[in-house]
Amino acid sequence: MIILVTLLLQTVPEWEKVAEWTGHTDRVSSVVLHPDGKRAISASWDATIRTWEIASGKCLGTWKGHENRVMGLALSPDGKRLLSASWDTTLRLWDVETGKETGVWKGHEDFAWSVQWSPDGTRAISGSSDKTLRIWDTRTGKCTATWEGHEDVVRTVIFTPDGKRVLSNSYDGTIRSWDVATGGNLETWKGHGGRQFSLACGPDGTRALAGGWHGVTLVDLEETKVAARWDKKGNTTWSICFSSDGKRVALGNSDNTIQIRNAESGKLISTLEAGRGKGKGKVYSAVFSADDSLLLAGNTDRTIRLWKRK
Q1: How crowded is residue 186: how many other Cβ atoms within 10 Å of its Cβ?
Q2: Number of domains present in the structure of the chain
């Protein structure tokens, strides 16, 4: 009986797909879930940002302003403002309630790929094809510092939870740690699988994961060393998100799947089919809700999909 129950539990899917939302006319590059648990926001290569009601799947609004692909989104800690990064080289600030564009931040000299708020909401960090990271004052929209060191596109940038460090990765194949106070490059690690595309920091700030062409690199931020490399045999990791408890990660992949893995060992827990057939799309963005009950993903097939944990 115990064996039978165990086998049954192993065959019951942990996640159930509950919705598919369409509306974007090109690839969905980034998705975020609002902390109120009622709304989601998406960005696309069609140069627009859309807001969605989670319960109904209704598109609540389409925000226009960018003149090229919108590649990255970041909600402020209080959920009232949104920053977007675009191939038009700008960052734009939006009022989440009204959808009004309240700022255009200029400084990058090439495509802007990624943006994130500091934990206290006073600063933002961005990464660009101009090979730089830039620090911004979120109250004025002014660039206060430019950090150089990467030798190719800066693909993803994030703050550590304590706000004292920034992590970045790049097409140059490296992952770097930066001191926010001085702008100094503290550490440089070689990422697994060549070009690096995705990056996330665990909620306790002790670990980071970076995704590349062929695998994932686990960095121990306390020991400042590479702790493990997860080989994915040619399956590019386009996005990484930790669960709120730091025990699991969701990896958005080039084979049109999302892998849920143990965040420490890398052991595969479950695989979600995230498109209209294996190999017929890429998962550019996948995020857990604050309580880990929902998983939202944006796909190159122009569709946003929502899963609910059983």
Answers
A1: 13
A2: 1
* Of 14, 72, 9, 31, the residue nearest 307 (C-alpha): 14
- pLDDT single digits (tens) 231-243: 887 799 999 999 9
Tens digit of pLDDT for each residue in 57-80? Answer: 999 999 999 999 999 999 999 999
Chain-centre distance of CA 145, in angstroms?
A: 23
E strand or H helix at 260 = strand 257-262
**C-alpha–C-alpha distance, residues 185 and 24, integer Å:** 38
Q: What share of the chain is helix, strand, coil (3-state, %, to 5)?
A: 5, 55, 40
**Residue 292 Cα distances to 162, 283, 295, angstroms:** 22, 19, 7
Q: What is the pLDDT of residues 174-204, one digit of tens each?
A: 999 999 999 999 999 999 878 999 999 999 9
User: Any idea what DSSP says for residue 191?
Assistant: P
| Residue 38 pLDDT | 97
Residue 168 maps to a domain: yes
pTM > 0.70: yes or no: yes
Domain extent, residue 129, equals 16-309
- Determine the Cα–Cα distance for residues 269 and 262; give it in Å rounded to an integer: 7
The verdict on residue 72 lying in a domain is yes
CA 104 to chain centroid, in Å, comes to 22
Lookup result for tokens 């992949």 = 253
Task: Give dist(CA 96, CA 305) in Å, integer.
Answer: 21
Q: In this structure, what DSSP letter does residue 46 have?
A: T
CATH at 252? 2.130.10.10
Inside any domain, residue 234: yes
Q: Name the stretches of the chain with pLDDT < 50.
A: 1-11
- Look at residue 3 and tell me if it is in a domain: no
Say if residues 192 and 215 touch (Cβ distance below 8 Å). Answer: yes
Helix (H) or strand (E) holding 104: strand 101-105
- Which amino acid type is present at position 72? G
Hey, what amino acid is at 35? P
Per the rule left: phi > 0, alpha: psi between -120 and 50, beta: everything else, 220 is beta
